[in-house]
Write a structure and sequence with these properties.
By secondary structure, this protein is α/β, with parallel strands linked by helices. 20% of the residues lie in helices and 26% in strands. The chain is built from 6 helices and 18 strands. The strands form 4 sheets. It has an 8-stranded mixed beta sheet with strand order 8-9-11-10-13-14-17-18, with helices on both faces. It is globular and about 70 Å long.
Length: 374
C-alpha cells in the first residue's frame, strides 16, 4: 500500500476494512509516519505503532482480526482509509480481494477413485496442456481447495486428494493405507492427454509430506516433490502417533512399511529411502516446529540426497520463528497473505513469523513450479 501527497514527517492512521465472502468483517489499523516527501509505503516503512511491527508489505492484511477464518469461496470487498491522528479522513480507496475459487478464475472436475475424494482444479481459461500437481493434506484430513484453486490460477492442473475426513472416506486416519491407492491417482494423470505426466509434481504437508515422499520413492513416475514440515521416517497413523496401539501409516503390496513408534531411536528400516527418488525436491520447514523436528528431519533428507549425488536437485528452506503450520492452523495450506486461522495454534513460532514464512514458502513454491514448467 502506497500513499503520497501527505504532510511530510507527520503521523497518519492507516485502517483496513474487509468484508469476506461469509459477510464477516475484518479490521486492521496501524500508525505510520510519512517521510520527508510526504510518502508512506508498507513495503519500505514500518508502522510507528499498531497491529504489527517491522517492514512488511503484506502485514496490513495478515495482521487483521475478524472471525475464525477468512472465507475464500467468493470475492471480498475492502477499503483502505488514511486519517489524521485526530480522526479526520484524508483519503479512502476501495479494493476487491479476488477469490481463486470464483468460476471465472478456476473450474473443477470430480475424479472417481475408490477410497478417495479427488477433485481436479484447472484454470478457467483452457490451455493445450497443463503441468500436473497432486496435492495431499496433513493429519487434519479433508480437502485443500484453497491451495488447489490458487495453484490453478497460476496455470497448473491440481488434483486435490482427500484420503480421510471427507465424503466417501473414513472419518479418521485409523488404518494402514496402501500406497497403491494413490498410485491410482498417478494412473489418472498418465491417462489424461491434457496433463504433462512426465513432469508430475507431488505436494504435501505434515502427514501429507510423509505420503508424498513415500509415494515418490515407490512410484518412479513422480518427477518433483514439494513438502512442508516433512518427516524423514515412516510413522504410525495420526490417531496413534507417537504413542498408543500403533500400526504403520502406509503399506506396499499388502505389507505395512516399517515405522517408528516415537518411543525409541528410529531404525534404518523406518527411514524413507529418499536417495531412491531421482527427481527434484523442495523442502520447507519452521525452526520452531513444536509438533516435530521438521527442520532437522529435512536436513537429514537433504544430506542423504547430497551424498547420493543429487545436490543440484535438492533444496531446503527453513524459517526462523515459524512453527509446524505456517500462517496458523489449517490456513497454512491455504492462501499465504490472508489472516491466519487459529492464530495461537500454529504449533510453534509467532503470528508474524508464521505469516511471513508462509509468504516466503509460497514464493519458493511458485519458483520451483515455474522452473519445472519451462
Amino acid at each position: 500500500i502506497e500513499v503520497t501527497g501527505l504532510q511530510p514527517d507527520s503521523e497518519f492512521v492507516m485502517t483496513l476494512n474487509i468484508t469476506d465472502a461469509s459477510d464477516v468483517d475484518w479490521f486492521g489499523q496501524s500508525v505510520f509516519r510519512s517521510n520527508a516527501e510526504g510518502r508512506i509505503h508498507t513495503g519500505h516503512h514500518a508502522p510507528v505503532r499498531g497491529m504489527y511491527q517491522g517492514v512488511s508489505a503484506s502485514a496490513p492484511f495478515w495482521s487483521m482480526i475478524g472471525g475464525d477464518r477468512f472465507s475464500t469461496h467468493d470475492d471480498a470487498n475492502g477499503t483502505v482509509t488514511i486519517s489524521s491522528v485526530s480522526g479526520d479522513i484524508l483519503a479512502r480507496r476501495s479494493f476487491v480481494w479476488t477469490s481463486p475459487r470464483s468460476p471465472d478464475r478456476t473450474r473443477s472436475e470430480r475424479i472417481n477413485l475408490a477410497g478417495l475424494k479427488t477433485t481436479l482444479y484447472l484454470p478457467a481459461e483452457a490451455q493445450s496442456e497443463y503441468l500436473p500437481i497432486i496435492l495431499f493434506g496433513g493429519s487434519g484430513g479433508g480437502t485443500n481447495h484453497e491451495r488447489a484453486s490458487l495453484l490453478a490460477t497460476h496455470g497448473y492442473a491440481v488434483i486435490d486428494v482427500a484420503y480421510f475426513r471427507a465424503n466417501g472416506t473414513p472419518d479418521y486416519f485409523l488404518e494402514t493405507i496402501p500406497l497403491e491407492r494413490f498410485a491410482n491417482v498417478i494412473d489418472f494423470v498418465v491417462s489424461d492427454d491434457r496433463l504433462m505426466a512426465d513432469r508430475l509434481v507431488l505436494m504435501g504437508r505434515s502427514y501429507g509430506a510423509q505420503l508424498a515422499l513415500s509415494l515418490a520413492v515407490y512410484d518412479q513416475r513422480v518427477a518433483g516433490v514439494i513438502v512442508e514440515a516433512p518427516s524423514n521416517m515412516i510413522t504410525s497413523t495420526p490417531a496413534t502417533y507417537p504413542y498408543g496401539s500403533s500400526q504403520s501409516a502406509w503399506s506396499v503390496n499388502g505389507q505395512p512399511l516399517a515405522y517408528h513408534t516415537g518411543e525409541d531411536t528410529p531404525h534404518s528400516e523406518t527411514l524413507i529411502p529418499i536417495e531412491q527418488f531421482g527427481g527434484a525436491l523442495l523442502m520447507l520447514s519452521g525452526e520452531e516446529d513444536a509438533s516435530g523436528q521438521a527442520t532437522d528431519m529435512a536436513e537429514t533428507l537433504s544430506e542423504r540426497r547430497v551424498a547420493a549425488g543429487m545436490s543440484s536437485h535438492t533444496k531446503h528452506l527453513s524459517f526462523l520463528d515459524a512453527g509446524h503450520n505456517f500462517g496458523g492452523g489449517e490456513q497454512s495450506y491455504g492462501i499465504a497473505n490472508l489472516p491466519p486461522r487459529n492464530r495461537n495454534g500454529s504449533s510453534g513460532g509467532s503470528v508474524a513469523g508464521n505469516s511471513e514464512a508462509a509468504i516466503l514458502a509460497w514464493a519458493a513454491t511458485l519458483e520451483f513450479l515455474d522452473d519445472f514448467r519451462k
